[in-house]
Write a structure and sequence with these properties.
149 residues; mainly beta; four-stranded antiparallel β-sheet; 12 strands; 57% strand
Amino acid sequence: VSLMGHHDGPVQVMLPENQFVYDIKKGKNLGQVKTFETEVRPVRPSIFALFDQELARPEVKLESETVGKGSVGKATIRIPGAMGKHALKVTAKTSMGEEADWMKDILILDEEAKVIDLPIAHNDPEGEWTLSARDLFTGESGTVSFRVE
């Protein structure tokens, strides 16, 4: 559902029945509602996804919880019970808290899981790293930690 018009300001949206509503632009789950408020701006649409059931958060599973320097780990990402396609932003943070640019990706997933590589260089910092997959439609994330040795 897209809302746009000449009105500039708050509006109340009334649905015919309770729906799970996701604000696509804000990446926010509004929950199961029959009415909700939003801002309408001229020439700037508000975009919402409506579903009969709540969407699952992304699942991230590691092949191994430890990845050696100079090797490539593997992770499997899926959306349990996916209805249609989901856009996911995948990011990793090093043990220093810095984003690992080379692991940034956008994935389009449906009911099929996707296996991704986690390349670790010989000079990458040791310690606890995190890998996250954030659903760009719902704002929900799945996150796991792995150790670089």
